Amino acid sequence: MKILNLYAGIGGNRKKWGEDHEITSVEKKEDIAEIYKKLFPADRLVIGDAHDYLLKNYDKFDFIWSSPPCPTHSRTNAFLNAQGIVRYPEMQLWQEIIFLQHWFKGKWVVENVISYYPPLWPPKVLDRHYFWSNFVIRGFETSRNFNIANARASTRRPSKDDINNLEKYHGYDIGNPPNKRLLLRNCVYPPLGKHILDCATDSFTAPQLPLFPS
Q: In this structure, is the dihedral angle defined by the CA atoms of residues 131, 10, 75 and 153, taken in order, positive or negative?
């Protein structure tokens, strides 16, 4: 199967997909892409704008995963707004959902954080993420061996224990890059990424109602 993995980061969602698929991943930041390449050397890695790449290449793939930038949608904006930092939510999230729903013939999923505003279209909520898709994503229970919610949400200076626990939780050893904690907490939990791909490839999955009218 030909898979397009957009806004790849360090590949939390991709980690347990195995090596049986032809995977193209797109990441804009070169330092993050370098980490991804070391972790997944068999993947085709494109360093560039994922939003633009999707528009030009969507019809070459069987399955598309997209995780557009989340900071402007996150509930942390409530705290920033109180400090006088105001910004519009970036609309490429919604652009990609609409585009994929109407024009892509394969299976697709778009992931983002739980937002500070009511989402424009109802998502599936799993492990503190929103997911929109054109297939049914079954329920999923995470197995937490530490309080990841606190590790992710804490506003204090991150401790070494926070970072070590996030590494153990996601099953990563990425050395000591700048913003290591941010890279790890932005990951989709790897078993959840595999669960969603399994749902997409399950021939017995019932069709989901369209998000938008034809």
A: positive
